[in-house]
Amino acid sequence: MSKKYVTIGLGNFGFNVTKTLFEEGHDVIAVDFDEDAIQHVQPYCTQAMLADATQKEMLRTLGLEDMDAAIVSMGDNENAATLITLYLKELGARRIVVKAGTEDHGRILSKVGATDVIYPEKDMAIKVARSLSTPDVLDYIPMSGDFLIAEIAPLEVFVGKSLAELQLRSRYGITVIGIKELVPENFILVPPASFVIKHSDILIVIGKRVDIQKIKTLKEKR
Predict the structure, then answer these.
(1) Reduced 3-state DSSP string for the chain
(2) For residue 19, how far is the Cα from the chain centroid?
(3) Is 125 within the bounds of a domain?
């Protein structure tokens, strides 16, 4: 189902959010005060607007009450990001996602109306560090508490064995909720206990961070 978004600020982050949402079939209005940025984004949005989003009356024209979310990315201009967030809240935006550079600025954004504050540089740094620390974890999604959903390359000891034989939940505290088969390409949601792991499979698991990190220790012991 198509949704409606407005992206404000078209630096690298804002541009890629706009492009991805548009390519996934959603309506996206892109706003920036830089003419080059507007020209660059035009093929990748529903409407590109050359405007100053720190002007409340300009934001009022966007129909924010009908938007599923507004995404604000103003680079290092913290004052502009804060003012825009405040105006978006006052004008009835339902969800306001704002990029922040520091924890302090993030707290300010939350107080003036941001529903979601993101720290792309920090999040990517943590992701890279964890991929280096635990190389068998290909990707992960943080959940509440200490839980993660992670993509894991199978250890050599897993290959050729069924999920029933491996007993990953009872032995390692992780639950397999999906399998990505690469040869041939296929996805199995909640695979049966009889599923046999292959070298080309990727396991989608959920578990506590500490249990998922044990995968590296298991590999080093064998």
Answers:
(1) CCCEEEEECCCHHHHHHHHHHHHCCCEEEEEECCHHHHHHHHHHCCEEEECCCCCHHHHHCCCHHHCCEEEECCCCCHHHHHHHHHHHHHCCCCCEEEECCCHHHHHHHHHHCCCEEECHHHHHHHHHHHHHHCCCEEEEEECCCCEEEEEECCCCCCCCCEHHHHCHHHHHCEEEEEEEEECCEEEEECCCCCCECCCCEEEEEEEEHHHHHHHHHHHHHC
(2) 15
(3) no
Residue 102 tokens, joined = 């520091």
Which pair of structure tokens corresponds to residue 151? Answer: 């993509």
Q: Are residues 103 and 137 in the same domain?
A: no
Last residue of some domain: 52, 85, 120? 120
Domain boundary among 120, 140, 165: 120
Tens-digit pLDDT string for the chain (222 aa): 789 999 999 999 999 999 999 999 999 999 999 999 999 999 999 999 999 999 999 999 999 999 999 999 998 899 999 999 999 999 999 999 999 988 899 999 999 999 999 988 777 676 666 666 554 555 666 666 678 888 888 888 889 999 999 999 888 889 999 998 888 889 999 999 999 999 889 899 888 878 887 765 655 444
